[in-house]
């Protein structure tokens, strides 16, 4: 007899975890919808031709590939063996599992471009699979939760991303967090301004270590990466800059005066803030981080990253504006801006901060309990009344001792037990016990409905 | 440049389809929860040792297998080739995609048996994958939607399944349908009573064709399947039986008087009906079908199947009671009863009958439209007011001609457009156009909120 197990890096979600995940996802979905985003879903399997070459060599390695059905090995020859997996792969597999939601979305947009109404705002919440080495907090199956608007370069979209993040976090009772924002054009401009045009990539990688290793070490790394000493010297005042938002913008307008691209980035950022102001919104939680470079190779405008303070978990949301979502599938010029929530990380943050509502433990509100057959029959007759009033109600289905019924309610996290004894039967009442406080009240049906609905 | 495509047998769900699927699934989820069922999810991938041997030889063929990551072919030798896929399979693959929700649920119960509270009521709504030949209405990826209660043999569960089906169908506005119900023990009893004990399987297969081929042909088939002429003769009055529920039960009590098992089946059925009566419920839509044999090899008690009348689609729901969910994983004695909704088929039924609510077309209620920059700024200032009131609101993000904004609302199915012109700005109003009726009303903000909330 086999002892069953889970594939490594995968998880079951039991009732408690599902209730909590649903709490997070419902909050996110409701917010996306409030801002006009529409849900789509794409298949778990995509053709390998759709997936490969989109995530770099490492990504191609991490794709889960699906064996062709039937006699998958019929085209394999002895001489195909021993040359590593690449030679064999295209003979035995033509499909892979979704690796992210961006490439399937791009494919969807291309395949449906004549039917879609642009600007097209879509959200998508589905699992993705990566053959990563499993470790704490990193799984081979995990959910992504993306929202993108394509077919417009309006900066209203960027402003609304900030509003959506703030709304989701408020609904989740998260208060201490930063929405870091930057603009790729500013990074491009900085590289130009210090005389190292085109090298914003290595520049950001090095600067990113500033907090950890200090400016002296960062300077060494920049030198190693081929930056001129004079360039690094020009960079110093920017690195040393400590200022509020207005001061940062003022500084950059001077620092970037030789770079049209850089100035355009500052202008875009100011416009996003201006739109927020027109919307009657402040800049709470918004933190302009001049060196933020998340996903640099992909983003062309705004860049976002959200971190919750005082928790052990990294960024829980991020995104940015891109120029060319679908070019690789033959449809150029589809620009847009998108962001995503890291659902697993948000779960861990809420868990660490104890912010999950107690309600989400069990959805059942009321268990009807009884001592004997007469009580059982009485309770059966009441079930429908409670359910018709929308109260999630159960009855313990077998006649067992009432203590066992209470144990069941306790273990399942049912907040109220309605005792149906001989006195309750004769008076047409139910004795409702609040499992948290221990209080018990004999109530008429309308009273129960009013108390629990 | 590659032209992207979908793997055959898979589908994208666009916004309209997703809204409609969500309408169906939310109805089902809400009902499951009202009856105390809790949601779980299991991984898309399972170990092949969990999956193989559970679905018969054909099922094993239809499992999607996942290539091992890394150098998957490192153990493959030349002599492994040319002998068909079976010899190679265990060298290149150890995981497969979920084929149904029952086996993963059984695995889950076994792995979590010490933490679960029994009776355990779970529901699960996830896609499954089968390497079937794709054809109309049959896909390689489709959703299953299962509810099971395990760890009790109470017939209250069977009665509540009937209630849940009726509630879901009422909420979906489905009125003309039958919940066919039978009991495996009755089928066993019939085989015993006609002197063909143990042959209820072939008996049901033959009888199932009665409507199509007539009694004479069914008799021939029974003879071919080894039934004695005297047995077939004993069966004739049962086949000819046309009666109401009471008549059927009366007939069977006599017909099955030699079979304890058969009489037990009748008794269980009567108890289910008795529980419904104690619950104050009638037998609307309930149709006792003496020959219903869905999934015979698996079920040991009640058997359910639901068909909508006057549509071209087969059964949309079904299930039954089983004895031994988890025996194959080394945990005997876990009995239960479960049923599932065919989400794709329900979708097709509602589509065929035109029962999808118009509301589900788009979630956005209001598009703010404008003529110029002043109107755009004014609209930006209003967005938050509407959204804070829970009204799903959008603004066309780029300044374009107002006709294009109306076209956008039309195509996206937004029911109201709020025009922000110079007059509206000066009076602090919005002119709200009902896109269905063409009516347009100038309203103050509180009026708009009242009208649309």
From TrEMBL, chains A, B:
Q: Which domain of life is it from?
A: Bacteria
One Pfam match, given by its short name, reads tRNA-synt_His
Q: Which range is the signal sequence, renumbered to this chain?
A: none
Which family does this protein fall into?
A: Belongs to the class-II aminoacyl-tRNA synthetase family.
Q: Which NCBIfam families match?
A: hisS (TIGR00442)
The subunit structure is: Homodimer.
Q: What is this protein called?
A: Histidine--tRNA ligase
Q: Which organism is it from?
A: Algoriphagus oliviformis
State which gene encodes it: hisS
């Amino acid at each position: 007899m086999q002892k069953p197990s889970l594939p490594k890096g995968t998880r079951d979600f039991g009732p408690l975890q599902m209730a909590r995940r649903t709490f997070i996802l419902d909050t996110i979905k409701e917010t996306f919808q409030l801002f006009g985003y529409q849900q789509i879903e794409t298949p778990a399997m995509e053709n390998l031709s759709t997936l490969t070459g989109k995530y770099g060599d490492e990504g191609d390695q991490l794709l889960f590939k699906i064996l062709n059905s039937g006699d998958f090995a019929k085209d394999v020859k002895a001489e195909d063996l021993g040359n590593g997996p690449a030679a064999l792969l295209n003979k035995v597999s033509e499909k892979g599992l979704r690796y992210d939601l961006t490439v399937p979305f791009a494919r969807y947009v291309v395949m449906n471009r004549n039917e879609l109404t642009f600007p097209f705002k879509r959200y998508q919440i589905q699992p993705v699979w990566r053959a990563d080495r499993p470790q704490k907090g990193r799984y081979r199956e995990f959910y992504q939760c993306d929202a993108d608007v394509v077919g417009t370069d309006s900066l209203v979209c960027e402003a609304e991303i900030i509003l959506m993040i703030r709304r989701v976090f408020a609904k989740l009772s998260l208060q201490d967090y930063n929405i870091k924002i930057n603009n790729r054009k500013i990074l491009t401009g900085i590289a130009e301004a210090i005389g190292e045009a085109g090298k914003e990539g290595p520049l950001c990688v090095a600067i990113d270590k500033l907090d950890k290793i200090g400016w002296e070490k960062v300077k060494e790394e920049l030198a190693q990466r081929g930056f001129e000493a004079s360039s690094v010297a020009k960079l110093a005042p920017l690195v040393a800059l400590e200022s509020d938002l207005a001061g940062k913008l003022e500084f950059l307008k001077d620092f970037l005066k030789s770079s049209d691209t850089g100035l355009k980035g500052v202008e875009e950022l100011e416009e996003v803030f201006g739109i927020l102001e027109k919307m009657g919104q402040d800049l709470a939680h918004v933190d302009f981080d001049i060196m933020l470079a998340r996903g640099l190779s992909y983003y062309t405008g705004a860049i976002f990253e959200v971190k919750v303070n005082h928790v052990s978990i990294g960024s829980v949301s991020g995104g940015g504006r891109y120029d060319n979502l679908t070019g690789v599938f033959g449809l150029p010029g589809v620009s847009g801006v998108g962001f995503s929530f890291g659902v697993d990380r948000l779960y861990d943050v809420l868990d660490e901060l104890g912010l999950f509502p107690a309600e989400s433990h069990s959805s059942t509100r009321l268990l009807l309990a009884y001592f004997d057959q007469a009580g059982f029959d009485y309770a059966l007759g009441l079930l429908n009344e409670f359910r018709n009033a929308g109260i999630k109600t159960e009855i313990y289905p077998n006649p067992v001792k009432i203590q066992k019924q209470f144990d069941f309610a306790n273990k399942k996290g049912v907040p109220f037990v309605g005792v149906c004894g001989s006195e309750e039967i004769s008076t047409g009442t139910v004795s409702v016990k609040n499992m948290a406080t221990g209080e018990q009240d004999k109530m008429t049906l309308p009273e129960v409905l009013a108390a629990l609905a």
